[in-house]
Amino acid sequence: MTILHRDDADHIATLTMDAPERLNALSHAMLAALQANLDAIKDDASVRAVILRGTGKAFCAGHDLKEMQSGRQSEDAGAAYFADLFDRCATMMQTIQSIPQPVIAQVHGIATAAGCQLVATCDLAIADDTTRFGVNGVNIGLFCSTPMVALTRNIHRKAAFEMLTTGKFLTASEAADLGLINRAVPADALADETRALAATIAGKLPAAVKTGKSAFYEQAAMTTAEAYAYTGDVMVQNMLRDDTNEGISAFLDKRKPNWD
């Protein structure tokens, strides 16, 4: 059974997690499928934006707890198994931000633990307005330490710490207010809103978006002075591109750029 489907149209790749009976949990198979597809998309020049969504009642409920419990059967009580699991999950999350195409999470139902981490990791996110978000591992004795990495880079520290230590869930409206998602929309508008955002991005100069996404994450880890020096160099290189020259000339001439 295929648990992840890829569909391409109009320069947009849609990745659909399809394990509804496990709430699209990040099992070994799901992590491997996501990693393989993201790796393939990275070098696919025909793809300019990516939508990540899930089937069934949930976007993603986090790691597969039943699978994790089975990992305890080894002689080391699962130490090596768990280390490998969290390492592969971290690699997949970082791949989302390292590929040149913006990745948009289309979220519904619930996004919990590593599923909330997945939303926080995606470059953009739009949610059904009934969606709930949580890093609630503390409720079962497992502090969401790896999801915390993405969460604390998206929302206010105190809000994140409250979620992590109490298991509190956010509504979609609260998630939007805190910056975890871009916006919440009615369920019947979710697919169209997400697609429209992806189409807008896909209509921009791919080289400019690629340059900008990389620079966005690089400068965020720098001091202000370092960031200005770095992004100044990035803009110089961007300005020297022929297709950027064409885009600016077209704007001044009041015509559409010829980027084909």
Automatic annotation (TrEMBL):
Keywords: Fatty acid metabolism, Lipid metabolism, Transit peptide
Protein name: Enoyl-CoA hydratase domain-containing protein 3, mitochondrial
Recorded family membership: Belongs to the enoyl-CoA hydratase/isomerase family.
Species of provenance: Yoonia litorea
Keyword Transit peptide attributed: yes
Record's function text: May play a role in fatty acid biosynthesis and insulin sensitivity.
Keyword flag Nucleotidyltransferase: no
Coiled-coil residues: none
GO biological process, one term: fatty acid metabolic process
GO molecular function: hydro-lyase activity
